[in-house]
Amino acid sequence: MKKSRGRTGRKRRRKHLQDFVDGANCSHQLEYIKLKKWLKDRGLEDSNLRPAQFCDTGRGLMTTKALQAGDLIISLPEKCLLTTATVLSSSLGGYITKWKPPVSPLIALCTFLIAEKHAGEKSLWKPYLDVLPKTYTCPVCLEQDVVSLLPEPLRKKAQEQRTMVCELYMSSKAFFSSLQPLFAENTEAIFNYSALEWAWCTINTRTIYMKQSQKECFSLEPDVCALAPYLDLLNHSPNVQVKAAFNEQTRSYEIWTNSRCKKYEEVFICYGPHDNQRLLLEYGFVAMNNPHSSVYVSSDTLLKYFPPLDKQRNAKISILKDHDFLENLTFGWDGPSWRLLTALKLLSLGADEFTCWKRALLGGVISARNEQQALNITAKICQFLIEETQHVLLQISQLKGNRENLKNHLGLVEALRLEDLKILQKSAEILCDLNVPTT
């Protein structure tokens, strides 16, 4: 009898362990124990969510009970949220209200994060700061060697992101200096570029949308960002639907799920219907098999398939530019986008067809020749992008062997490029089914 019970017990334990295969519960770790106590002191009631480490997504939250559509995932009291009101009620408040021209709500939040991180043990926000990432993988943090391997449209946005953060730092240096009376150390050492980059990434990747009333002490940029401890451990999935908003009655930020989730599975929320380039740019990760993913065709790639000898070439380019048809031209899981095909149809208009450009822009059929030429060039562009992507993947593979310090960042770009390759190969199949010759 005893033997039999032991076997059943082992089976039960195996079953229980099986539930945790995908995610290792991290609730016992000291940083999470301290965070939960800190949140409880601020009014957070214990939920069914537990911090865990997952194979595919890294750190996230698992549920200890099955969730049904319509269930409340989390309700985070207002006292737990970090907003510009939090900043103004701190020792920074007086300096912000006096400073002219007014600082932006973004700089106020960045300044607070840097100051609190510097305060260390003395910070009231230490339990939250301790679980924030030490480093980020947004393009602004990537080495130039890695940025150069990004697809062209994303590479351009990555450079713009870096320039914007640099300008933010330079334009805030005088304000940072004004805070010197609050610190024993030189403010230049505390509020340096890397500190601002970290704070900016923290806000850009982790804040929830929460509209604040306009305050005179801030510049006119919208004050809509709030940091939400614990809640910000929830990872993104493009395949779930949630409802998220601040509840004025309960004075809490609430997230309700429209999807089911099994016991001990990771709970996901959706940051929006973003493609992988946007996810990498704004959040520093990519989602595999993302239904919203696209491969962008740059205007340079588009135009190199049309001869400069075409007398109407410049007029066609002007029309596309005026009607915003040189941006957001893509290949997706369902093949070339309508915008891409429309742009190519207009560029393929013969001299005798040029007067029909308005009809072409509206998606009308001009001629069988025009349709066929546009599809032929679409297939050539697709093939060119496949070869380019394969070439970059080879470069990444070689660099991973030589640059150990860049392995994680290279792995991120590799994931993006592999997803791009799958999309392009799928598009090539679709174009092939249309009997399009690629030569």
UniProtKB/TrEMBL annotation:
Subcellular location: Cytoplasm, Cytosol; Nucleus
All copies of domain SET, residue ranges: 47-272
Family annotation (Pfam families): Rubis-subs-bind, SET
Catalytic activity: N(6),N(6)-dimethyl-L-lysyl(20)-[histone H4] + S-adenosyl-L-methionine = N(6),N(6),N(6)-trimethyl-L-lysyl(20)-[histone H4] + S-adenosyl-L-homocysteine + H(+); N(6)-methyl-L-lysyl(4)-[histone H3] + S-adenosyl-L-methionine = N(6),N(6)-dimethyl-L-lysyl(4)-[histone H3] + S-adenosyl-L-homocysteine + H(+); N(6)-methyl-L-lysyl(20)-[histone H4] + S-adenosyl-L-methionine = N(6),N(6)-dimethyl-L-lysyl(20)-[histone H4] + S-adenosyl-L-homocysteine + H(+); L-lysyl(4)-[histone H3] + S-adenosyl-L-methionine = N(6)-methyl-L-lysyl(4)-[histone H3] + S-adenosyl-L-homocysteine + H(+)
Keyword S-adenosyl-L-methionine listed: yes
EC top class named in words: transferase
UniProt-listed InterPro entries: Rubisco_LSMT_subst-bd, Rubisco_LSMT_subst-bd_sf, SET_dom, SET_dom_sf, SET_MeTrfase, SETD3_SETD6_MTase, SETD4_SET
EC number: 2.1.1.364
Highest taxon in the source lineage: Eukaryota
Disulfide bond keyword on record: no
Alphabetically ordered keywords of this record: Cytoplasm, Inflammatory response, Methyltransferase, Nucleus, S-adenosyl-L-methionine, Transferase
GO biological process annotation, one example: methylation
Entry-linked SUPFAM superfamilies: SET domain
A single MF term (Gene Ontology): histone H3K4 monomethyltransferase activity
PROSITE patterns listed in its UniProt record: SET (PS50280)
PANTHER family listed in its UniProt record: SET DOMAIN-CONTAINING PROTEIN 4, UNCHARACTERIZED PUTATIVE METHYLTRANSFERASE
Record's protein name: SET domain-containing protein 4
Organism: Centropus bengalensis (lesser coucal)
Gene designation: Setd4
